[in-house]
Design brief:
The structure holds 2 protein chains of 2 kinds.
Chain A (H helix, E strand, L loop, with lengths): L4 H5 L8 H30 L6 H26 L7 H17 L4 H25 L4 H20 L3 E2 L4 H6 L11 H19 L1 H11 L1 H6 L4 H26 L3 E2 L6 H11 L11 H20 L4 H31 L6
Antiparallel strand pairs in A: 1-2
Chain B lengths: L1 H21 L33 E5 L6 H16 L3 E4 L11 H9 L4 E4 L8 H9 L3 E5 L10 E4 L3 H15 L4 E7 L5 H14 L7 E8 L4 H14 L3 E6 L2 H12 L8 E4 L3 H9 L5 E4 L2 H16 L10 E3 L5 E3 L5 E3 L4 E4 L9
Parallel strand pairs in B: 1-2, 1-3, 3-4, 4-5, 5-13, 6-7, 6-8, 8-9
Antiparallel strand pairs in B: 10-14, 11-12
Helix pairs in contact in B: 2-10, 3-4, 5-6, 7-8
Classes of the chains: A mainly alpha, B alpha/beta.
Chain lengths: 344, 357
């Protein structure tokens, strides 16, 4: 179980288990994403003027940081078979509260801590409904999606708080050594490593796959399913709060409608990254590649003057393809392998 | 038991972090919040410089596929064609505060000469606009401004004085210069509306308007239903009412709908600020004689010329500079780099079919 059997199993011996098939398919999905991403970058670099430059790379990274951040805990949540659709509303509410606390005269350092804490509390509310009352997370977080956004408007109305100190707002888009890599991206990568290690190299991470495949079996195996899910929702809320801080500072504007609709971009990236919406499958690397691929495609098409509506169609198409392709591949593979033994 | 301990420990850590960060932190007012490198109009203007040909001019509206901006950008397009530039329109499909930022970055990356934009949020796009300007683009805002330090000039559709003067003139004409009038406004605390109403009262002090009296100000809250009911209420409470002025698009349309189905149609005059598409049927059925609004096409047209003048070095955005804007004539830049389009356009039976917004 430990180590990385997937790497060994790539040639797929005929005695392989279903689990093994899936794992090797996964590795291939990551590889496929990497190849597609590289192709997009190369093609856009050649065909689209202005794409291949450090400055554009910086813009691209700044645009995907918030999505990447929120996608980290969401990946773990989706692997357990749950979902959190309230992430963008959590971001918006945290942004609105951040504005009000700043207006109230609190020091910004404290405001940031409080806002991330608020995110965790909002996540805990989701967690309580999902784990203590055993409600479906889809329903719960659609509810809080609306409720948190509504609360954000109660907190800040249609006003914007914009007088954050320049030193802070500038930091949100400043780069390492004035190069092309924003500090925000570095923070995201550090967090990604943390989430990646937790998911792929700890018993806790492996237990998430187990509960995604079969929650009941996981429970019987002694995994504390409810407790694990509880903390994942809390983490999702806290990271969304952090993304709210980033969003507010990057756009120098605390507003109740900040990042409205972003949950769709995040879910799209997670699914495109190869995480199964039914749980039990997916890697963090795949999700990061998914985020970058969506970001790169949007960036390149925008530079090529493709209209916003067409852009949305392309993003939607990519998402559908990401769900359809691996399923078709897995199905046909399973069928090919099983047909001789179990006809029909 | 261990759960309790852990919770306590977590609480302690949090409290420590809070306490540490609370002392000596950055609070509101303790630090300058404007970009120290914020650029102002620099360089020397050459009023005789010809408009450069082949300028890349990009219009970035609040959102694409919005009828108002389609008309405004269309005006920009005809201006750009006149000075032989390359026009394009880009923009987000929804008007979120930050949705314009990636488009500004893209335009900056494409080395666009002029960016003409209407800001969804006065602050959210500031950083992106300034970095585009540092990369050589000239930035014109129109319709909705950003903070002044983030753009070169702002083309304002109208001033409060312009609206007040126009609205009083229209209603005076329609009621024959005397009688009681009422105002149907938006919300009681709408800053714009209150300023305009105050300016209308000032206008009415002029001798030619001495026989006109404002008897009531009603508030329809910019809601269709409420504006409809308030109109009804005004007509009941003031049987001698000669006219209603509603300087809000929602209010004037609702009032027109009420009037057109009532006994007051054609007897009580109605004017205000409305869009031709909302008001067309009421102008055609005789409920409304004339109403006003700025012409968005002219707004876009002027903004495009302002951008070209900036990029050609004719103007720098400083107060007092003059620019020639094609068919609209000469404009002078006011305080804070603001150019005012001029008095609102009046729409009536004769010209309403030429407008679609």
């Amino acid at each position: 179980m430990a180590g990385d059997p997937a790497a060994v199993n790539v040639p797929a011996p005929p005695t392989e288990t279903t689990h093994g098939v899936l794992r090797s398919a996964l590795v291939r999905w990551d590889t496929a994403l990497l190849v597609v991403l590289a192709a997009v970058v190369v093609v856009a670099g050649v065909l689209v003027e202005g794409f291949a430059s450090g400055r554009n790379f910086q813009f691209l990274l700044l645009d995907v940081v918030a999505i990447a951040l929120i996608a980290l805990p969401l990946t773990l949540i989706v692997i357990t078979g749950e979902i959190d659709l309230s992430v963008a509303s959590t971001l918006g509410l945290c942004s609105a509260v951040m504005g009000q606390l700043w207006v109230a005269g609190l020091p910004l350092e404290l405001v940031v801590v409080l806002v991330v804490g608020l995110g965790a509390v909002l996540g805990a509310v989701n967690a309580v409904f999902v784990t203590k009352f055993a409600l479906p997370s889809l329903a719960v977080t659609i509810g809080t999606l609306a409720a948190y956004r509504g609360l954000a408007f109660v907190v800040l109305g249609d006003q914007a708080v914009a007088d954050f100190p320049f030193r802070w707002t500038d930091a949100a888009s400043s780069t390492v050594a004035d190069g092309a890599v924003p500090w925000a991206a570095v923070v995201t990568i550090v967090l990604a490593v943390v989430f990646g290690v937790v998911l792929h190299a700890t018993p806790f991470g492996r237990s998430l796959y187990a509960m995604g495949n079969n929650a009941e079996a996981a429970t019987f195996a002694g995994i504390r399913v409810a407790r694990a899910k509880f903390w994942l929702f809390v983490a999702s809320g806290a990271v969304s709060g952090l993304a709210g801080v980033y969003w507010t500072l990057r756009f120098a504007s605390a507003r109740a409608d900040n990042a409205a609709g972003l949950e769709l971009a995040v879910v799209a990236a997670v699914l495109l990254g190869g995480v199964s919406i039914f749980g039990g499958r997916g890697t963090l690397l795949g999700v990061l590649l998914g985020v970058l691929l969506l970001g790169a495609v949007r960036n390149a098409l925008q530079l090529a003057d493709v209209a916003a509506d067409t852009l949305n169609i392309v993003t939607g198409g990519l998402l559908i393809a990401s769900v359809v392709v691996p399923n078709v591949v897995a199905m046909s593979r399973t069928r090919l392998r099983r047909r001789p033994r179990h006809p029909a | 038991m261990s759960q309790l301990k852990r919770t306590l420990r977590l609480g302690l850590i949090t409290a420590t972090v809070l306490a540490v960060s609370a002392c000596g932190g950055t609070t509101r007012g303790s630090e300058e919040n404007t970009n120290p490198a914020g650029n102002q109009a620099t360089g020397q203007a050459d009023p005789d410089a010809p408009l450069t040909e082949g300028l890349d001019v990009a219009f970035l509206p609040k959102q694409v596929n919005n009828p108002y901006f389609t008309v405004a950008d269309g005006g920009g397009k005809s201006a750009v064609e006149e000075f032989k530039g390359n026009y394009k329109e880009v923009g987000p499909s929804e008007a979120g505060a930050s949705s314009q930022v990636s488009y500004i970055n893209t335009l900056s990356q494409q080395q666009t000469d002029v960016i003409v934009t209407s800001a969804n949020d006065p602050n959210a796009i500031c950083g992106a606009l300034n970095s585009a300007r540092q990369a050589g683009a000239k930035v014109v805002t129109f319709d909705s401004d950003t903070k002044p330090e983030c753009r070169d000039v702002f083309v304002n559709q109208v001033t409060g004085e312009g609206i007040a003067e126009n609205q009083v003139e229209l209603i005076a004409e329609q009621i024959g210069g005397e009688g009681e009038i009422a105002i149907l406004s938006a919300t009681p605390n709408a800053t714009n509306q209150n300023a305009w109403i105050e300016l209308m009262r000032e206008q009415l002090k002029k001798p030619e308007y001495s026989k006109i009296e404002i008897v009531a100000v009603a508030y329809g809250n910019d809601e269709d239903q409420k504006s409809f009911q308030e109109t009804q209420g005004l007509l009941r409470s003031y049987p001698d009412l000669k006219g209603i002025v509603s300087p809000t698009t929602v209010g004037v349309a609702a009032a027109a709908r009420y009037l057109s189905g009532s006994e007051y149609k054609g007897k009580v005059a109605l004017t205000g600020l409305g869009t031709p598409n909302q008001m067309r049927e009421f102008v055609k059925d005789g409920t409304v004689e004339a109403f006003a609004l700025w012409n968005p096409a002219d707004l876009g047209y002027l903004a495009a010329y302002a951008g070209a003048a900036l990029a050609s070095g004719q103007i720098t955005g400083a107060q007092g500079e003059k620019l020639e804007a094609g068919k609209l004539g000469e404009y002078t830049i006011g305080e804070d780099g603001v150019i005012v389009l001029g008095p609102p356009a009046v729409f009536d039976q004769a010209n309403i079919d030429q407008f679609d917004f």
